[in-house]
């Protein structure tokens, strides 16, 4: 299916990497140019936004979108990776072996302390690069290095456990708390789980993680890799492929006549008439579409010059 351009919302299964998903999609759709907009850990599941063909050029406009997750935080001990795939640590905090119930009010207080703008230290087992080196590669060699904290925003962090389910203690002394998180791009949910445990005075790690939304894309729109294979065999990609224009529907748009559209494909700015000056902030990304409503480029608005400069052109002249 060479020449297929658009966005696929994949429900990533557990046990494979996001890179593995991209490789599978390449084989299924027969398209070499495939990428994604935000990594999910191998044990995690859910929304992975996959770009195909010329739509891969749009990653920069999608990767910074807000994310939503449903997760299970296991209270009782920490791991070296911050999640269920890691090794249990022996240096537990003082209340790791706590046997008394955890009041709902205490849970809420700990969550409230982590909402809003906070700083997180990136985990060693992460793909973040410092000095050109991936942290997880250093961690696998047993190295620990200083990681500057990053500022993130936790817009929602709530307990969604039924009744008082987190009070039920497992045979190993742990308790599981189901949560929902809405956060800015770049947030580490593993780190949030660990910090939540610290607020309660006990070790904690992430037992389950499912991304339920990435920007405008929700889990209800996602398809499995098996479903994508079925679509490929039947040739009914229109059922699942999201057009580049629809994928960026949250951005303002300009519809251009043929001559202006041609200039845009050549990298020439589009003037905005002063009488129709939009209320866009300087630097606002803008969809530039041809007379048929097809996205041809994404430009950046220059408020001083009253012009939109094509930044990424996805349709040739």
Folded structure, characterized:
- By secondary structure, the protein is α+β, with helices and mostly antiparallel strands.
- The protein has three domains: 6-65 and 216-244, Pseudouridine synthase (2-Layer Sandwich); 71-203, 2-Layer Sandwich (Pseudouridine synthase), CATH 3.30.2350.10; 251-313, Archaeosine Trna-guanine Transglycosylase, Chain: A, domain 4 (Roll), CATH 2.30.130.10.
- The chain is 21% helix and 29% strand.
- It has eight helices and 16 strands.
- The strands form three sheets. Strands 1, 2, 3, 4, 5, 8, 9, 10 and 11 form a nine-stranded mixed sheet that branches.
- Strand 10 and strand 11 form a beta hairpin.
- The two termini are 22 Å apart.
- The mean pLDDT is 90.
Short synopsis of the structure:
Helix 3 packs across helix 5 (189-200). The strands form three sheets. Strands 1, 2, 3, 4, 5, 8, 9, 10 and 11 form a nine-stranded mixed β-sheet that branches. The chain is of the alpha+beta class.
Blueprint of the fold:
Blueprint: E1 6-12, H1 18-29, E2 34-36, E3 45-52, H2 59-62, E4 67-75, H3 104-112, E5 116-120, E6 129-130, E7 133-134, H4 135-140, E8 150-159, E9 175-183, H5 189-200, E10 204-214, E11 217-218, H6 225-234, H7 244-247, E12 253-255, H8 258-265, E13 270-271, E14 285-289, E15 295-302, E16 307-313
Parallel strand pairs: 3-10, 12-14
Antiparallel strand pairs: 1-3, 2-3, 4-9, 4-10, 5-8, 6-7, 8-9, 10-11, 13-16, 14-15, 15-16
């Amino acid at each position: 299916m060479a020449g297929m351009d658009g966005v696929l919302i994949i429900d990533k299964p557990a046990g494979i990497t996001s890179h593995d998903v991209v490789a599978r999609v390449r084989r299924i759709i027969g398209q070499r140019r495939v990428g994604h907009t935000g990594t999910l850990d191998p044990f995690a599941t859910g929304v992975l936004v996959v770009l195909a063909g010329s739509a891969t050029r749009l990653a920069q406009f999608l990767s910074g979108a807000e994310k939503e997750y449903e997760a299970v935080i296991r209270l009782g001990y920490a791991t070296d990776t911050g999640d269920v795939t890691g090794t249990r640590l022996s240096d537990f905090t003082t209340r790791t072996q706590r046997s008394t119930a955890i009041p709902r009010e205490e849970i809420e207080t700990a969550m409230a302390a982590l909402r809003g703008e906070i700083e997180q230290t990136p985990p060693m087992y992460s793909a973040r690069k410092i000095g050109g080196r991936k942290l997880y590669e250093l961690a696998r060699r047993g190295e620990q290095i200083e990681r500057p904290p990053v500022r993130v925003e936790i817009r929602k962090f709530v307990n969604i456990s039924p009744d008082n389910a987190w009070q039920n203690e497992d045979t190993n002394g742990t308790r599981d708390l189901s949560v929902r998180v809405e956060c800015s791009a770049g947030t580490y949910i593993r780190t949030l789980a660990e910090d939540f445990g610290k607020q309660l005075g006990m070790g904690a790690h992430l037992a389950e993680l499912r991304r339920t939304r990435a920007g405008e894309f929700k889990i209800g729109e996602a398809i499995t890799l098996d479903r994508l294979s079925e679509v490929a065999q039947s040739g009914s990609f229109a059922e699942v492929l999201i057009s580049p224009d629809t994928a960026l529907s949250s951005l303002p748009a300009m519809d251009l006549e043929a001559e202006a559209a041609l200039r845009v494909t050549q990298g020439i700015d589009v003037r905005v008439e002063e009488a129709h000056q939009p209320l866009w902030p300087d630097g606002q990304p803008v969809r530039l579409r041809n007379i048929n409503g097809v996205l041809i480029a994404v430009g950046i608005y220059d408020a001083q010059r009253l012009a939109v400069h094509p930044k990424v052109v996805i349709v040739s002249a």
